[in-house]
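Hey, can you fold this one?
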Amino acid sequence: MLEFLTLLAREAAPVEFERPLLAARQSGAPASELAAIDEIKIAALRVRELLERRRRREEELSALYDTASDLAGLRDLDAVLRAIVHRARTLLGADVSYMTLDDPERGDTYMRITDGSVAASFQSLRLPAGAGLGGLVAVSGTPYSTAAYGKDPRFHHTQEIDSGVRDEGLVAILGVPLLLGSTVIGVLFAANRTERPFAREEVALLASLAAHAAIAIDTARLLTETQAALAELSAANEVIQAHSASVERAAAAHDRMTALVLRGGGVEDVAADLVDILDGLLLVLDAQGRTLATAASPSVLSSSSPADVDLAAAVAASRAEGRSVQRGDAYVAAVAAGADNLGALVFHPTKPLEGADQRILERAAQITALLLLFRRTVAEAEGQVRGELLDDLIAGPLRDEEALRSRAARLGVTLDQPHVVVAAADQASGGLRQRALSWARTFAATRGGLAAGRDGRIALLLPGADPAAAARTVAKELGRALSRPVTAGGAGPASSPAAVAGAFHEADSCATALLALGRVGDGASHTELGYVGLLLGDRRDVPAFVHAAAGPVIDYDARRGTALLKTLEAYFAAGGSLARAAESLHVHVNTVTQRLDRIGHLLGPDWQTPSRALDLQLALRLHRLQGPLSA
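Sure. Predicted structure:
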């Protein structure tokens, strides 16, 4: 009796309720005892069925409550309808659920939402009036179901509908109407790819969900109509007022921006002046789409982020037309100097701009271009100085470390703090290589580091103690900037001027090794190259290699007192044979299998691939030299 209660408590599968009876038979229990156990089993299964039915009812009520909550906060009709269709599929245990809506203009119905569908022909299906199961539901306003649609003569079959149903593999279909009063506006379906009847409770549940869907559609329609009416009423008044004020703003803007340039203002000042004149939110972006400055008028400081804009297309259109362009609620003005693209101004006004207001935005873009050109000139000069310092650190020998420290301090770099060195390998030449170097200088300067071109590599000295992470970041970001794969090796940390040269050579050899291993576009340090990194690295960090290859297993054995390391050694020694490994360990084959499964969870599913297996075997041997394996 207690065992059946335990099974009920943990919601065991029905088949598990046979185990106590089987156990009693195997133990030779008398027939009377077996009969009593069987009666208890039957009673327990009935209780389980009752609990399952109540759980399912709770799920259905919860789904209906969630749907009602969606309607109360309706913002996105598609999201609400998708949720309803998905809940229908989940609660009815159906393979596919979908919704069709009437198209008054064409006089038929079309697929609005599908869930679980895989056939494109089914998802784009349109149903003529009165055709198929859905047509019968729409005409009669009554739910219909069929256990085998293809064989059911009650429905008007058409080639297009039957073909779509076959493509999707549907057999059993249930459809209920979406009713607004007495008008059917669509049908909600649940379908299976095997024959099955639909219970009365399932029909009622689907009908409840369909009622919520109809309410959502009608609510969205009313909201749309109300919003459109309000917008039309306010638009006329806003246009009249905006036109009269735009001329005055244009004159004031011209005077303010001219004065700004004369007093040595920056890009941030241009942005602040613009939103002071034109109410809204302004983003000043560079050529890569990164934000250089943001300004917002007081009325929009608490607003959410602006909607995404296809910046590349908008900037291209602005340059081609020679003026700002509108994209949605945003206005984009290219910031350019001749053929040189310097970035863009993306302005989200609180109200649509008049023609004169757009001229103000374009004037601001011109001023921004002048300021960015000046900033670029200053940045290139500073980048050259930073590059020369890093080149001197790498070239060696260092004759005057204090002088190097003093030069670095003037650039905001403290050489006695931990830095990592990254060597980025890229075969670019000419303008593309210059772009890579310019990117590296900017990237390093914004992080308090240095960058230079060195021996066909882009060298970076960056604050930090994780060379692998820095190498991956450089490879990813520089590759994105160049639109081509870039491979980067990392080394360090270096905490003195004298350590920089060695770290660069180690990072350079790591980048070369990555290329030789076919890992183009990757970033790593020697500790992530397995035995290759161990051989190439200057410091021969054996503990780090062992931990990288087998650390999770070593730690697991240390915490649990298990023998996973010993099992690994036996498995490799047996050439991957489970039987021979079990024999050498004096355990059952199943024990070896279970231990290897645990190792797979710790190391990842690819631990037996040739490259990882080689690293793992070498790590086991090195760990054995450091101390005995767990018994």
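The chain has a mean pLDDT of 79. Let me know if you want another pass with a different chain boundary.
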